[in-house]
Amino acid sequence: MKQQSAKLTYLKLRLPQRTWPEKVRRQRRSMNTYYSAFHFLILCLLLLINAPASSKCIIDTLPGFPGTLPFKLETGYIGVGEKDEVQLFYYFIQSENDPQRDPLILWLNGEPGCSGFSGLVYEIGPLGFDVEAFDGSLPSLVVNPYSWTKIASIIFIDSPAGTGFSYATTSQGYINSDNKTAEYNYSFLRKWLLNHPEFVKNRLYIAGDSYGGKIAPMVALEIAKGNEAGLKPRMLLQGYIVGNSRTDANKDDNEKVPYAHRMALISDEHFELANSSCHGEYVNPDSENIQCLYALQLVKECTSHISENHILEPKCKFMSPRLNISQPVQLSLEDDPVDLLSLSKKKSIYGAANYDYVTSYVWANNETVQEALHIKKGKITEWKRCNKSLSYEEDVPSVFEHHQLLNEKGFQALAYSGDHDMAVPYMSTLKWIRHLNLTLDEEWRPWTVDGQIAGYTMKYKNKQAELTFATVKGAGHTAPEYKPKQCFAMIKRWLSLYPL
């Protein structure tokens, strides 16, 4: 009887639902639709509130380039900092090969304060300027056949704030340091990957040259710690790449005297006098050591008119705009390119190789170019390839420990050096590598491209990690700029896990 009573009650409750008129049913469906739409709007609002502050645009054409770009270019801003007060601008170029499987590289330029565009257009990106045709008007762009984007997707970032097109909404946002730059670059990458989830599963490498090579291992270590702490998204960091990189300013600069001797810029007698009297300390000598000071003066007299960024090039900036060092002649196309554009027609007189850096200044400050790149108006007054007036504190004297920790954690590393660079000599890179106490896996040997020696390489390893060192023969401070074909072969082999 209890079962029957329960059944009858159930029937009584169900009967009214089956006898509701059509009008009521329509009203119920309408209300359900309304509530569903309302919940959807609330969800969208929550996602919008929690989404990373960013903007991005796909660029199909660029002023100076004929037709449609033969690669996928995206530009945008990503906000970092407590209140997104720092807006970091970036150029993203998708791999021209297999973007789903090819690695993702975050590229950092140096100084600090040099735009990622410099790395894009002068070193490893798919475009370059037609310098021979440059007459002071809008420069023409040409395809770089040795772009690293043929094998990898690359993010070129303007970092820190005040670099390139990046800006801050507060004065505090323009106060930069090593630690802050590394932290913000990591924050940038996290937000970028949240906006580009299709690249979360790609192998990731952090790369940089010059001062960017100092920041690169710092960012890599931030990523490693973030992964260990369970921060999202988890990044598939494989390793890092540094080129003629700053590691420890004093130790890097201390190798300039031995390098000058090795490259026959100073005599045996000068070097022996400096070495014996200064006891190997050339950067901060004892002010009371008269013999050491005299020896260093002899060294200076022999090297002061040598271009540190490439010892075979003319020193003056207006002669060779690749250089970024103080000049005996106070003329600089980078500091005042408009007034000196006429010099581009006199390069044979001055013996200059080209005026590449002037072309970037003219191109990037063009209004139609900035519109094409979707640059926010009124945020910067003038684009500079390298901003030399940044407020920047070098609060990390040495990143040797960062290299050490990354190696202990099992990350792969490539350290390459243009062998004609005296700004950060290859000898200083080799010195910190040897102090990592790794096992030498491959002895010093030549590596070749098209049957010709492109440089020399060694490989070190421990139980988990490998570190490859390579010189690039004939290259200067920014090796891919001088030897693009050889550097493309180098990175292609290394990323493919092939021997150089």
Automatic annotation (TrEMBL):
One GO term (biological process): secondary metabolic process
Matches recorded under Pfam families: Peptidase_S10 (PF00450)
Sample GO molecular function, one term: acyltransferase activity, transferring groups other than amino-acyl groups
Family annotation (InterPro entries): AB_hydrolase_fold, Peptidase_S10, Ser_caboxypep_his_AS
Keywords associated with the record: Carboxypeptidase, Glycoprotein, Hydrolase, Protease, Signal
Superkingdom per UniProt: Eukaryota
Protein family membership: Belongs to the peptidase S10 family.
Protein name, entry field: Serine carboxypeptidase-like 7
Organism: Sesamum indicum (Oriental sesame)
Lineage: Eukaryota, Viridiplantae, Streptophyta, Embryophyta, Tracheophyta
Gene symbol of the encoding locus: LOC105169470
